[in-house]
Design a protein that fits this description.
The structure is a single chain. This protein is α/β, with parallel strands linked by helices. It has one domain: NAD(P)-binding Rossmann-like Domain (Rossmann fold). The chain has nine helices and nine strands. The strands form two sheets. Strands 3-2-1-4-7-8-9 form a seven-stranded parallel beta sheet, with helices on both faces. Strands 5-6 form a two-stranded antiparallel sheet. Helix 2 links the parallel strand 2 and strand 3. Helix 3 runs parallel beside helix 4 and helix 4 packs parallel to helix 6. The chain is globular. It binds nicotinamide-adenine-dinucleotide.
């Protein structure tokens, strides 16, 4: 798909990899709608030349309403969807204070897994009814964000790993289902990236994370994620796959 003039919906777009992806897509000529639960998304959107919508990705009605507004304000439905919204809480299955709070486990799955699925299923329905974009009958592309924690989650990451493992697991069956509609889906599994999710952690934790990096010996940059997302849009043979973006990192147990 040529990115120029396409409408792109980026969730979690207020910050980190979502924001970097939105900025990169705009630099390549896309028209971008940012969705985030944080109210500041409107200011970020204004700064980067997008339109911002405050919504919870896991809320059916809110996302339907956002898609209606996008069609009205942009004149058509998004052909690119990048799911970056996510949370990363930590809790042990059995900790000092008792078992893992069930509501925290549920919330993590709700935002990361159900939220990604909610956005992609509602956007894909609209894409499926839109006209083909090229001779291959392509109608759209969906990019999800998992994590290397889907494969080697650390101590305290049962909920996060389950949510990201779910994203990896649903990628192929969704690709199979949407193929007849000309819609591709791919997942990016980042390693440790320099975004607020990580930079808000203590120096000690960040140093320990950096020390596990192989090459390059630094955290990943949000722009590196953005470039891969754009490449997935442009390269039609990428479909149904999860791509690790981690500099050969394999997470240790802690
Ligand atoms: N930073 C890393 O090292 C890393 C590694 C692997 C995977 N990831 C994943 O990458 C994605 C982007 O993370 P990031 O590092 O850019 O973090 P970030 O915290 O900078 O951005 C996440 C954004 O998601 C938004 N959000 C949270 N809950 C939401 C909801 N219910 N509805 C809408 N928006 C919501 C937040 O407000 C925030 O702006 C996440 O899914 C994260 O799990 C991050």
């Amino acid at each position: 798909m040529h990115i120029q003039n396409q409408i792109a919906l980026v969730t979690g777009g207020r910050s980190g990899m979502g924001r970097a992806t939105a900025e990169h897509l705009i630099s390549l000529g896309a028209k971008v709608a940012l969705v985030d639960i944080a109210l500041e998304v409107a200011d970020v959107a204004k700064d980067i030349g997008a339109i911002g919508y405050t919504a919870d990705v896991a809320d059916e009605k809110s996302i339907s309403d956002v898609l209606d507004k996008i069609e009205k304000e942009f004149g058509a439905c998004p052909r690119i969807v990048v799911n970056c919204a996510g949370i990363c809480p930590a809790s042990r299955t059995v900790g000092r204070d008792g078992p893992h709070p069930l509501d925290l486990f549920e919330k993590t799955l709700r935002v990361n897994l159900i939220g990604s699925f909610n956005v992609l299923r509602l956007a894909a329905e609209r894409m499926s009814k839109a006209s083909a974009l090229n001779d291959d009958d392509e109608r759209g592309v969906i990019i999800n964000t998992a994590s290397v924690a889907a494969y080697e989650g650390q101590i305290g990451q049962a909920a996060y790993s389950a949510s990201k493992g779910g994203i990896v697991g649903m990628t192929l069956p969704i690709a199979r289902e949407l193929s007849k509609m000309g819609i591709r889906i791919a997942t990016i599994a980042p390693g440790i990236m320099e975004t607020p999710m990580i930079t808000q952690m203590s120096e000690e934790v960040q140093d320990s994370l950096k020390s596990t990096m192989l090459f390059p010996k630094r955290l990943g940059k949000p722009e590196e994620f953005a470039k891969l997302a754009a490449h997935i849009c442009e390269n039609m043979m990428i479909n149904g796959e999860t791509i690790r973006l981690d500099g050969a990192l394999r997470l240790a147990p802690r």
